[in-house]
Amino acid sequence: MSAIKQALKPTQHKPVKQLDEITINQIAAGEVIENPASVIKELVENTLDAAATEITIEIKAGGRQLIRIIDNGCGMNKDDALLSIERHATSKLRTVEDLNNIFSLGFRGEAIPSIASISFFTLNTCTHEAGAEATIIEVEGGKLTKHEPSVRAPGTSIEVRSLFYNVPARKKFQRSVSADVGEINKIITAQALSHPKVRFELINQGKTTLKADASHDDNFCSAMGTRIRSLLGEAFYHSLTPIEHSESGYTITGYIGDPLYTRHNRTGQHLFVKQRPIFSSLISSAVTSGYGTALASSRYPVFVLNIDLPSNELDVNVHPRKREVRFENPQALASCVAHAVQKAMSKHQNPISQTLPNTDPLPWEMPSIKPSFTPPPPLEH
Fold it and tell me: Residue 363: which of 7, 40, 13 has the closest Cα?
């Protein structure tokens, strides 16, 4: 009998059964955790949500052998620490209505149990309360093996060892170590750009490969500029013009490239919404529209922009890995962005487009789709 006929052959009925928690978490990990970079993204988001001002990330073998993240955030007490390894346990939501006003980077309560189900996982945490006792938790492939008092400074450290050790199918299709290291660098760069008042350090195989000291500048735009110089280089920074613009409830802050400098693709475009790294070809197109005729055809401007808007106008719960967002009023936001660029670029007259070298570390790859929207009218002078 052929394989196809065998597959179509009726089989004995199997009863429906409730899946156990370990299986459920491993299935969830399939959506949330693609590779070591996914683990780091989720855990760094948690440290930022915990108000950490110092974050150290250490990796070995591209994160497959070891991921260690240490922060000085708020930490957890022993009960919360134990609850954190349970699926859909989170301190960031209480009701479905809270989804309309999400202020945190993470909110689903899936990351830690998913990661712990496919690795040897250790959590060591302590709150900042006077006399607080630290707690250490160890989980092996989703099974709790240790939960007892510990000793550490306030904050949290997480170790993830032997990622995917019990999921051979996932382990088989992992990319090269160098590819994982490259993506991890992009993720840390993105979060460091959008959180200039947080110190970041990335250690790969015992060597520091990325370090960004915390800014003490209370002006977000200025602090971001310092971070850009540190991470993206002097040449990139000096091609930029600062932008601070508010309109219709939206605030656009950051830097846009001088029209003298362009790229052949969107790799110089770094976009954040409420300090969250995102994809948005809508915003990319709006920025391009703001330059008018200053840009040559098929050239792309560079920028580092953060957009702030009311939380109820933003839906971040549209993608398993939170890479995409949905705007309530995309047309109004796009017009605001284009106006902001027009305003900043109004001093430039008849620029000659040149190409900016494509050598900077990048937080992500921007999509190539360009949604259309109606450009705003030119600014009056």
Answer: 40
